[in-house]
């Protein structure tokens, strides 16, 4: 399905909440971090093949005063304890009202991650669980893959260029399984 991207993906970026770990809204507690099924195996497989991995995460709870940057850093450290190290992290601390260039569906975090990795957006994929993730990928010139959860809206599933049933399937669609 879709056009083949085999062999050209050099970096895979992931949304954090609802994609790599179970979504706990505005989570500031590392003890509540639970990986999504298969996440560790998928990441290890990418790392084994020399494909860069990263996280691009909206954390508007910071702007809204619900969690601190330190809380987010503590949760992210727990994510790495459970899932292994990522080559790049991009966090947007803003809310919709801030009109920043980083909050997905804006492409800023994807561009920044690619710049820091030294990898072109055309060789980069972004896997996420909502429409804002695949829209950010498209806006940046990267390949977006949607892995819906039960709370993903149906119209976002219909609009996504690539839809996978889980993380392993998402990577398979990239020709990198
Ligand atoms: Mg998400
Ligand atoms: Zn932002």
Would you mind describing this structure in some detail?
The protein is α/β, with parallel strands linked by helices. The protein has one domain: HAD superfamily/HAD-like (Rossmann fold). It is built from 6 helices and 5 strands. It has helices at residues 39-48, 69-83, 108-117, 131-140, 154-159, 167-173; strands spanning 11-14, 52-58, 88-92, 124-128, 143-146. Strands 3-2-1-4-5 form a 5-stranded parallel beta sheet, with helices on both faces. Bound molecules: magnesium ion and zinc ion. Residues 15, 17-19, 128-130 line the site of magnesium ion.
List the helices and strands and how they pair.
Blueprint lengths: L10 E4 L24 H10 L3 E7 L10 H15 L4 E5 L15 H10 L6 E5 L2 H10 L2 E4 L7 H6 L7 H7 L4
Parallel strand pairs: 1-2, 1-4, 2-3, 4-5
This protein binds magnesium ion and zinc ion.
Zinc ion binds next to loops.
GO cellular component, one term: cytoplasm
Enzyme class: hydrolase
EC number: 3.1.3.-
Describe the structure concisely:
This protein has 177 residues and is α/β, with parallel strands linked by helices. It has one domain: Rossmann fold. Helix content is 33%, strand content 14%.
Overall tally of structural domains = 1
Instruction: Tell me the CATH architecture.
Output: 3-Layer(aba) Sandwich
Share of helical residues: 25-40%
Tell me the number of strands.
5
Count the helices. How many? 6
Structural class: alpha/beta
Spatial order of the strands in the main sheet? 3-2-1-4-5
Q: Which hetero ligands occur in this complex?
A: magnesium ion, zinc ion
Order of helices and strands: EHEHEHEHEHH
Overall shape: globular
CATH fold naming: Rossmann fold
**Sheet having the most strands:** 5 strands, parallel
Question: Whole-Å distance between the termini?
Answer: 15 Å
Computed over alpha carbons, the radius of gyration is 15 Å
* CATH homologous superfamily heading: HAD superfamily/HAD-like
Percentage of residues in DSSP E strands: 5-15%
CATH first level: which class? Alpha Beta
- Low-confidence stretches at least 5 residues in length (pLDDT < 50)? 1-6
């Amino acid at each position: 399905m879709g056009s083949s991207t085999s062999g050209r993906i050099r970096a895979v970026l992931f949304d954090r909440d609802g994609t790599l770990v179970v979504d706990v809204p505005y989570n500031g507690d590392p003890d509540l971090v639970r990986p999504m099924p298969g996440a560790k195996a998928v990441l290890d497989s990418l790392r084994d093949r020399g494909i860069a991995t990263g996280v691009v995460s909206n954390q508007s709870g910071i702007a809204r005063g619900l969690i601190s940057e330190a809380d987010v850093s503590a949760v992210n450290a727990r994510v790495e304890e459970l899932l292994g190290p990522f080559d790049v992290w991009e966090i947007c601390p803003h809310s919709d009202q801030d009109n920043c260039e980083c909050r997905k569906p804006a492409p800023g975090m994807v561009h920044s991650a690619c710049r820091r990795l030294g990898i072109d957006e055309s060789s980069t994929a972004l896997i996420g669980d909502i429409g804002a993730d695949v829209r950010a990928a498209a806006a940046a010139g990267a390949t977006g893959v949607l892995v819906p959860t039960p709370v993903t809206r149906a119209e976002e599933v219909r609009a996504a260029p690539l839809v996978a049933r889980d993380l392993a399937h998402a990577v398979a669609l990239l020709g990198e399984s």
